[in-house]
Amino acid sequence: MGRKNKNSKQSLSSKKNQRAKEIEYIKNLEAQINDFNPNDSLTISNISQFSQLPISKETLRGLTSAGFVSLTDIQKKSIPVSLKNLDILASARTGSGKTLAFLIPIIEKLYRNQWTEYDGLGALVLSPTRELAMQTYEVLTKIGKYNSFSAGLVMGGKDLKFEKDRIYKMNILIATPGRILQHLDQSAGLDVSNLQILVLDEADRILDMGFKLALDSILNHLPPTRQTLLFSATQTKSITDLARLSLINPQYVDTDNLSNQKPLNLTNENTTTTTNNNNQILSATPQSLEQSYIIAELQDKLNILWSFIKSHLKSKIIVFFSTSKQVHFVYESFRKLQPGISLLKLHGRQKQTSRTETTFKFSNAQYSCLFATDVIARGIDFPSVNWVIQLDCPEDVSTYIHRVGRSARFGKSGKSLLFLLPSESKFIDNLKAKSITTIKQLNIKPSKQKTVQKELQGLCFKNPELKYLAQKCFISYFKSIYTQKDKQVFQFDQLPSQEFAKSLGLSGTPKIKFKNMNENDISKSKQLKNASRNLLKLSKANDDGEILEDKNKKTRTKYDKMFERQNQNVLSEHYLGITSELKDINYEYQDNKDNNENDGNNDSDDDEDDGNLLKIKRIDHKLDDDDNDDLTSFNEINTSKRASKKALSRKASSKNRGNPTKLVFDDDGNSHAIYELEEEEDFHKKGDAMEQKKEFVSKETVHMQRADEEDKIVAKDKRDAKKRRRKELERQALLNENDSKLGAGVQFVLGENSEDENGDEYQDDYEENGSESEEPLSKKPKWFQNNKIGGEINDSENDDGIVEFERPETLEDLEALTAKLM
C-alpha cells in the first residue's frame, strides 16, 4: 500500500509539473504574438515557413505531417493578425491557401485558452456549399490530429438526428448556413454562448446566395464578444454588408497591396463611397493561368464543346453551365455518344451521396471531364485541372474569377476558355475594367470542328426521356438569361430560339412561360430556395410554439400527390405528334401492302404504287363527328404513365366502375335485373298471396326434379366412361404381360447387315396388313437376321427351340420382331 501511494504521489506531481510547463509555454507564445508586428513589411518578408510563426508545437507537427511547410502570401499577412485576436477581412487569389489562413488561428486560439469539451463550442466556420465544407473539414483533420479538440461537420443531406446527438460535444464546427441555423433552433444541446471565433469562408458568396436572412439569424444567436474572420477570393467593401456581420475595427488583408491594411471605420454612417469602391474587385486571377475566349453562336456551342473534348482526351477538364438542367442533358447525351473520356456531373440538385462520390472520383482521376454548375466554383481544390471551360457567360466578373480559379492553383499552370455570344462581347470590357487584361481571343478552325446535331436528333427521336431533358435544358437556359441583372451583356431578345432548339436535337421550339419578375422577386426566390422548410414552419408559429395552419387550405395526402403528378412519361407535345405521324405512315403502308397483294397479277399497277408506298394520302385524320370529341381531347391531354396504364387496362378500369350488375334477358330480348321488385298493385292483381306461393313452389319443384334427373344422367355417363377406361387399361396391361412372357425365350445376337447387289442396304419391313416390302436405307439398320443365313431361321441348327435374332435398336425393329413372333 505504501508503494502505491508513493507512485500515485509521483504521478500527481509529474502531472502538476507538466501542467506548469504547458502554462509557461502558452505564456511564451502569447508574448511572442504580442511582440510580433504584422504591419512591419520587413518582418513579413523574412518569414517563409510555418516554423517561424509563433504557433504551438502540436500545430506545427500536424502541418509538417500534412506536407505544409512554406507560407503563402495570404498566410504571411493574415495569420499574425489573426493571432492578435483582431477581426480580419481577407482577400486573395484563388488557390492561395486561404483555408490554412483561418484554420491555424482557430486551433491556436483554442489551444491558448486551454479549451475542453466542457467549454462548449469555441469556433464556427460557415461555408456556402457542402463540397467546400467537406474540404475544409478534411484539412482540419489533417493539421489538427495532434491536438485534443473535437471537430464536427454539419451540412444538409446528412442525418439530422445523428448530428443532434453529438453536436453538443464539438469544440469546432464546420457547417453550411442552413443546417447550422436549424441546429441553433432545434438542438437543445448546442451552446454557442461561449463562442470565441467565427469564420466566414467565401463571405461574399454567402451573402449573394440568398443567405442574408439566415446569416442575420445566426449572428443573433452568437455572442458579440467574438473574433470574426472573413475570407474570399473576391471581396466587397460595402459598409452595409460589413456592418451586417458585426465586425469591430477589422483589418483588411490582401495580397495585391491594394490597401494599406488600415482599419475600416464602420461607425461613421455618413461616410460616402464612390461607385468604383462599391463592389470593387480587389484581386485578380492567378498569374500562371492562360485565359482565352471565343465568340460563337448559341447553336454552335455544343459542337465546339464536343470537338474540344475529342481533341483533349488526355486532360482534366471542368465545364461550367448556368443551370443544372443543362448539366443533366449534356452529360446524358455526351455519355451516349461516348467521346472517349470519363464524364462526370455535379450540380446542386443531386443527392449528397452522389455529390460526394463525384467529388472524390474527379479529385482522384487523371483524365476526366466534369460538367458542373457554380456549386463548385468557390474554394474547391481539385488537383491538376488543365482546362476550365465556361460554356455559358458568368453573371459577373466575380463569378468568372472563381470559376477560372479551379485551375492554376498553388502556382501550377492552367488554362481557361470562355464562350461568349456575339451579344455578350461587352463582358470582355467588364473584365478589362477590373484589371483582367491578359485574356485573349481565339478563333476556331472550321476544319477542326465536328457537329453532333444529327446524333442528338437521333438520340432524342429514339429516347423520349432524353428529349424531355433537352426541352428542360432549353427552357432553363432561356430563364437564366431572362433573370440576369446585367441587361447590356445578357440580351434576351437576340437569342436564336429555333436554331438553339435544333442544336439540342429538338424538332420544334418548346413553349416558355415567363412571369414579370423584378430584382426583388429574384432575391426572394433565392432566399426561399436556400431556406429550410422546418425553419419556414417555425416562422409561422405563435408565441406558444404552435404552428398556425391555414383553415381554408386542404390537406394533401400522398394519394393526392400521386394523382397530381404530371409528365411521368416525359412525352412532350412534339413527341406525341411524331408518334401519331408514324402511326399514320404505318397504316398507309399496310393499306398499300394489302392492295399490292390483291393486285399481284397486274404489273403496271405495281409499278405505279411503288413510288407512293409510304406516302400519306390524307394528312387531316380528325373526324368531324361529335362522338370523337372525347377521343381528341384525351389525346391532347399530357397524361401520366400510371393514368394511361389504368385507362388502357381492362382490369384496372373495372375497379372504379363500382359493383357490377348482372342482367338476364327474356324471350323478347329485353334485359332485366336478376332480382326485380314489382309494384304492390301488380302483385295483388295476380291473385291471393298464398295461391301465388303454392304455384311458385310447385313450378320450382318440377324444375328441380327435371334438373335432378339431368344431373343423374350426367353422373351415370361419367361413371360408365370411367369404367370403360379402367377396363381398357386392364386389357392393355394383360396384353403387355403376355408379350413379355412370349419374348422371354428370345435371345438377340448381333450380326452383320445384308446388302443388295447395288450395295444399298435393305430391311424386311412388316406392315400392319402383313405385307412384306424391301426398301433401301441410307443408314445401316441391324435387323433380326441369323448370323449364318441373313434373316432366315435355321431350324436344323436350332434344335433347342431357341430362335436367335439380331438386337433391335429402333421402334420399327420392335414392330417387325413382334410381327415375326406372331
UniProtKB/TrEMBL annotation:
It is found in: Nucleus, Nucleolus. GO terms for molecular function: ATP binding; ATP hydrolysis activity; identical protein binding; RNA binding; RNA helicase activity. Residues 696-720 have a biased composition (Basic and acidic residues). It holds the Pfam family Helicase_C. Residues 79-253 form the Helicase ATP-binding domain. PROSITE patterns: DEAD_ATP_HELICASE, HELICASE_ATP_BIND_1, HELICASE_CTER, Q_MOTIF. Residues 600-611, 753-775 have a biased composition (Acidic residues). Residues 590-611, 641-667, 696-800 are annotated as: Disordered. Its EC number is 3.6.4.13. Residues 48-76 form the DEAD-box RNA helicase Q domain. Keywords: ATP-binding, Helicase, Hydrolase, Nucleotide-binding, Nucleus, Ribosome biogenesis, RNA-binding, rRNA processing. Transmembrane segments: none annotated. It catalyses: ATP + H2O = ADP + phosphate + H(+). InterPro entries: DEAD/DEAH_box_helicase_dom (IPR011545), Helicase_ATP-bd (IPR014001), Helicase_C-like (IPR001650), P-loop_NTPase (IPR027417), RNA-helicase_DEAD-box_CS (IPR000629), RNA_helicase_DEAD_Q_motif (IPR014014), SPB4-like_CTE (IPR025313). A motif (Q motif) lies at residues 48-76. Residues 642-654 have a biased composition (Basic residues). GO terms for biological process: rRNA processing. Residues 288-457 form the Helicase C-terminal domain. GO terms for cellular component: small-subunit processome. The Q motif is unique to and characteristic of the DEAD box family of RNA helicases and controls ATP binding and hydrolysis. Belongs to the DEAD box helicase family. RNA helicase. This is ATP-dependent RNA helicase.
